[in-house]
Design a protein that fits this description.
single chain, six-stranded mixed sheet, two-stranded antiparallel sheet, 234 residues, alpha/beta, 8 strands
Length: 234
């Protein structure tokens, strides 16, 4: 069984779903620390007439110190979600797939209140189902495993009964692959080079949120993800 890993993220890019497509299981690292600097955990890009648009979910930080991803709370969730949905309608309202996604996102934002992890998981699942993916997701916090680096991934893979780990391209720059081999795990890498697809608003912009891909291509977006993916063995 091949397992992949990723931090939970709001409307992640196509490479996230490429890992899902090429895995038997994905473990979401919700117990890892939320980065103080730049991170794609709570932000991603969509597209407007002037090109890329950064979308950031504001999270509460003041006086809270270092937080794990599963501890995050959204700042002014009602105001933020209304602004996001308004922006989405403005730039993607002519999509054939807009109304269904819009209504589902609206319900997600209402139900999750200020819980960032709940919202992230719900939007991940929404796009996963929209692309017809069946790969199960599992939370690190459900295992009680709290190692770091390669040791964390190895222990999670063992807990899942995996024989192979799928890592992102260039992961060997910050992980010791010998540790995986010594643990009896096969190592593969996923190269994701975004294939162009028809977009709204002018010239193609690569590696936007997969929400852009779905609103432009619908369920057929999974074909773009598959075409953009290549699994390389160690």
């Amino acid at each position: 069984m091949r397992v992949s890993f990723n931090q939970p993220a709001f409307i992640p890019w196509g490479g996230f779903y490429a890992r899902l497509l090429n895995s038997d299981l994905m473990i979401l690292l919700d117990e890892t620390q939320f980065a103080r600097g730049f991170t794609f955990v709570n932000r991603n890009r969509l597209k407007g007439p002037q090109g890329e648009i950064w979308v950031t979910v504001p999270v509460k930080k003041k006086g809270l110190g270092f937080q794990k991803i599963n501890q995050l709370r959204i700042h002014q969730p009602k105001k933020w979600s209304e602004n996001f949905l308004s922006m989405l309608r403005h730039y993607y309202g002519k999509s054939l797939y807009f109304e269904e996604i819009y209504q589902k996102l609206k319900r997600i934002f209402q139900d999750c209140e200020d819980n960032f992890l709940t919202m992230a998981l719900s939007t991940i699942d929404l796009l996963k189902e929209s692309f017809g993916l069946k790969t199960p997701l599992f939370l690190q916090s459900e295992t009680g495993i709290n190692q770091k680096g390669a040791k964390l991934l190895i222990e999670l893979a063992r807990e899942a009964g995996a024989t192979e780990v799928l890592l992102p391209h260039l992961a060997d720059r910050h992980l010791d692959l010998d540790e995986f081999v010594q643990a009896g795990l096969k190592v593969s890498f996923l190269r994701y080079n975004q294939s162009p697809y028809p977009q709204f608003w002018g010239e193609f912009v690569a590696n936007l949120s997969a929400l852009d891909l779905f609103l432009c291509c619908g369920p057929d977006g999974i074909k773009v993800i598959n075409k953009s993916s290549r699994v390389v063995q160690k």
